[in-house]
Predict the 3D structure of the following.
Amino acid sequence: MKTFYYLIFTFLIVTSCKTDSKSSPEIIQKEVKKAEFSIIIHGGAGSIRRDNISEEKEAEYRQKLEEAIRVGHDILKNGGTSLDAVQKTITVLEDSPLFNAGKGAVLTFEGINEHDASIMDGQTLNAGASAGTKTVKNPINLARAVMVQSPHVMLSGFGAETFAKDQGLEIVEPNYFFTEQKLKSLKRVQDFNKNKVASFYNDNINDSKFGTVGCAALDKNGNLAAGTSTGGMTNKRWGRIGDSPIIGAGTYANNNTCAVSSTGWGEFFIRGMVAYDISALMEYKGLSLKEAAKEVIQNKLPSIGEQGATGGIVAIDKNGNMAMEFNTQGMFRATMNDKGELYIGMFKN
């Protein structure tokens, strides 16, 4: 009988130790040296392959990614906030016709541009977003204004544009966002299959799956922030809104865990609450950022729906560790750390 009780006692001790080691997020975090600050960006994920991008175009993308991330890095290096770094970095990408945001946004079924954006503060969990705007030059600035200057989280359409004017944000004519390249993309999508309502149904349209831009940053005060901006899906209809302005799907930031910006098939990212799910896995299961991002993007996301979901994320945790996880052929991405080390990537390998 003594032997029996001894075995039971030993089993309980061993089981207790194993449970503690898996459930405490701090165990993983304490093993990682904290960076003073870090920043990570993306310019969209999709059919990004060497054989469909010329050397000249690749150089353009790399130059713009570097320009954008250095803007945010300089802000962080000089003691600025992660929110400012995220906002200013994204405006650089919005002003470039290379990406599906701002100036280079894709066209809807009607041949117009409609923009969505969001931003979130990891310190306060405050957030702002806008959807379906057509005249606000930099949607990320509107998202920041909604967060700071209104009692709301998301504004849309005409109301969002009215608020933008009241806040003194730069307003432009709708044709400012138009580019010939995006018009050609729209025509190719519509010609390929007139019965489909979105480019995601067609894997042969190589340049219509990517371009959404996003950024996540950690500042010297230990505060995280994330933001995302997009023109949505080529050939979208009926005022469709994707994941980019949805807090928890396209953008999420929490000082206790991480900051995340998503890019991909928005409908699935909304259904999977991808950005928040990564944070939740870190907070409740004690996974590292890398482990959580891989689980969500490589395992959970593709299992949603019959077709599976494609896309990726960039993220940074409270210690400055960064993750760039995607299940597509490529993702425009870049990182910079507190040592000034720059990484730029486009393709899968």
About this structure: The chain has ten helices and twelve strands. Residues 55-77 form the longest helix (23 residues). Residues 1-32, 199-209 have pLDDT under 50 and may be disordered. The two ends are 61 Å apart (CA to CA).
